[in-house]
Write a structure and sequence with these properties.
This protein has 8 helices and no strands.
Length: about 180
């Protein structure tokens, strides 16, 4: 009977540990901050909100005031040129856009990401590469045959920018974790 009680205690401790780890991962590491804004902006696009959460986590770590060395700003690290590119989303073209406002940043980031997905015929992997490495670079890589139009994340070894190759892998692995944690 003594060994059985020890076994039960160990099982209980392991279960408690796993539940605490799950709670920690869900609330502190794989947050769902701004999910309501993300879902609203993903509506009708077919983009999984968890993919946008993954991009935000990798891009800024949920820091609304993040600024990159290339002057990308906010949660989704959107550059000023991108704001200009999708400014038609704003009724007043002269409206002052705050790139650090989560709602504005996510609205522009999702619109731009959706534009990339449409540009690359629904291929999320290529859209993720373009989000990080630039539309012109990715189009050039496709034209040169370095990456294919039907790229899957496992086939990203020919991506010329090591940072962009690593970015794709981080976003996809983060996305898979989000799907696992929140679809249990």
């Amino acid at each position: 009977m003594g060994k059985f009680k020890i076994f039960i205690r160990v099982i209980c401790i392991v279960i408690i540990f796993l539940l605490l780890l799950y709670f920690y991962a869900k609330t502190l590491i794989y947050k769902t901050s701004y999910i309501d804004i993300i879902e609203k902006n993903c509506e009708g696009t077919g983009i999984d909100p968890y993919l946008i959460l993954s991009i935000i986590k990798v891009e800024s770590g949920f820091n609304t005031n993040a600024v990159s060395s290339k002057e990308a700003k906010g949660l989704m690290q959107v550059k000023d040129e991108t704001y200009s590119d999708v400014s038609n989303m704003f009724p007043n073209k002269n409206e002052k856009i705050d790139p650090f406002d989560p709602e504005t940043n996510i609205k522009i980031g999702v619109a731009y990401f959706n534009k990339l997905i449409n540009r690359y015929n629904g291929n999320y992997y290529i859209a993720i590469l373009a989000y990080n490495g630039g539309l012109g670079n990715v189009t050039s890589w496709i034209n040169k045959g370095l990456i294919s139009n039907d790229l899957a994340s496992e086939n990203a070894e020919n991506v010329p920018f090591p940072e962009t190759k690593k970015y794709l892998k981080k976003v996809i692995s983060t996305y898979n974790i989000y799907k696992f944690i929140y679809n249990l």
